Amino acid sequence: MAITQTGARLSSSEVAPEQPLASLADDVRTGLLSRPRWLSPKYFYDDRGSALFEAICATPEYYPSRTEAALLEAHGQEIIEHAAPDHMLELGSGSSRKTRHLLDACDALDQSCQYWPFDVSAQMMLDAGAQLVADYDWLALHALIGDYTGGLTNVPLPEDGRRLIVFLGGTLGNFEPGEARAMLEQIAGLMRGDDQLLLGVDRVKDTATLEAAYDDAEGVTADFNRNVLRVLNRELEADFPVDDYRHRALFDRDKARIEMRLGAGHAHRVTLATLDTAIDIDAGEEIVTEFSHKFTPDTLAALLESAGLAMDRHFEAEGGAYSLVLARRA
Ligand code: SAH
Ligand code: TRP
Fold first, then answer.
1. Is residue 169 lining ligand 2, measured as CB closer than 6 Å?
2. Which domain of life is it from (predicted)?
3. CB-based burial, 212-227: b 16+ in 10 Å, e otherwise
4. Overall pTM surpassing 0.85 (yes/no)
5. Positive or negative: CA dihedral 198, 77, 121, 250
6. Which ligand is nearest the CA of 98, by number?
7. Nearest ligand, measured from the Cα of 65
8. Secondary structure (3-state) at 199
9. How far is the C-alpha of 249 from the C-alpha of 172, rounded, in Å?
10. DSSP structure class, residue 32
11. Of 25, 36, 124, 281, which is least packed with CB atoms within 10 Å of its CB?
12. Which domains, ranges and CATH numbers included, belong to the chain?
C-alpha cells in the first residue's frame, strides 16, 4: 500500500474496496433511469459540498450536530475510560470537529491513542488532520482515503491494541435499513474482545423540528442538496439547470426517515455528455437524493442486535432528541 508521510505524526493512505465499486457514471446512469429517480449521497461531498455541510451544522435549525457535540463533551471522559482505545477509527470523519472532545478526554486521561479518520473527502480530512497534530502534541494520525461502502476489510489497523470505532453525525441513518445492518456487520468484523463502537444517531421526534433541520431558513441545506447536480455537471459534462431545482425535505413517519429530494421547476432535457445520454425530465419531477433515518431506543437496539452488537452505554440528549451509544460484540 502506498503510504504518504506528510509529517512525523501525520500520514495518509488509500483504502481499496473489497470489490470494484460502481463508478460515478454507472451509479448516475442507474439512478437517473430508475423510478423514482435517485442519486447516491456520497457525491454530495466535493470541496464545495463539504464546506456547505459544515455550514449546515452551524444553522440554528440543524440541532443534531450541536446536540451530539454536547453529548461528546459531557461524556467524553466516560467514553474514553470505558473504551480505553489504543486506536480510534472514525468513519466519515469530515472536519473531525466533534472528535476533538474525544481527543480532549484522551488528553485528560493520559490515554495515548492513535487516530485513524476515514473519509472520501481527502482534502478536508488532510486539512483537519494537519490542524489536529498541531493542536495535540502527542497525537499520531493516519488519514484513510476511500469509500467505506466498499467494505472495511482493507482498513490497515494494527493487530495489537484496543479499538474504538467512531461513527457520528447520524451518518448510519443515511443508509437504507439493509445497508445500515451490513455496515454495522462490517464494523463488528473489525471488533475483537471488548473493542467498542461509538455510534451517534438521530431520534424520531415531531415533524416540524425534523423537517426544519433539513430545510433551514437561510437555504444552506437547499444549496447543499442542489450541489450534487453541480457535481454531475462537472464530472459528467451534464447541463442540469441547477437553480431551477427546488429542495424538499419531508418526514415519512412510517419509514421513520427524512427524504431529501430535488424537484425540477420546468420540463427540460438534460444531456450527460460523458454518459452519451439525454433524459427528459417533467416539470415537478423529483430526484431522491438522500434518506436520513431516525430511531427510537427500540429500533436502534434491534438494528445493533441484527448486526451482532449489543449496547453497553446509552447517552441521550434532553427529551431523547439524540442518541450516542457505546456498543460491543454481543
Ligand atoms: N462526522 C462528521 C461529518 C458527517 S457528514 C459530522 O458528524 O459532522 C458525512 C461525512 O462522511 C462527510 O465527511 C463525507 O465526506 C463522508 N462520506 C460520505 N459518504 C462516504 C463514503 N461512502 N465513504 C467515506 N466517507 C464518506
Ligand atoms: N448525516 C447527515 C444527516 O442525516 C447528513 C445531512 C444533513 C444531509 N443534512 C443534509 C444530507 C441535507 C443531505 C441533505 O443528518
1. yes
2. Bacteria
3. bbbbbeeebbbbbbbb
4. yes
5. positive
6. 1
7. 1
8. strand
9. 18
10. H
11. 36
12. 3-18+60-205+296-329 (3.40.50.150), 24-39+209-293 (no CATH)
Burial 153-184 (b: 16+ CB within 10 A, else e): eebebeeeebbbbbbbbbbbbbbebeebbebb
Q: What is the CA 266 to chain-centroid distance, rounded?
A: 32
**Which of 46, 54, 56 to probe ligand 2 with, by most ligand atoms within 8 A of CB?**
56
Here the cell at position 192 is: 475483537
Residue among 27, 45, 155, 187 to mutate when testing ligand 1 (max atoms within 8 A of CB): 45
Q: Measured from the CB, is residue 260 less than 6 Å from ligand 2?
A: yes
- Beta-sheet pairing, 196-202 with 322-329: antiparallel
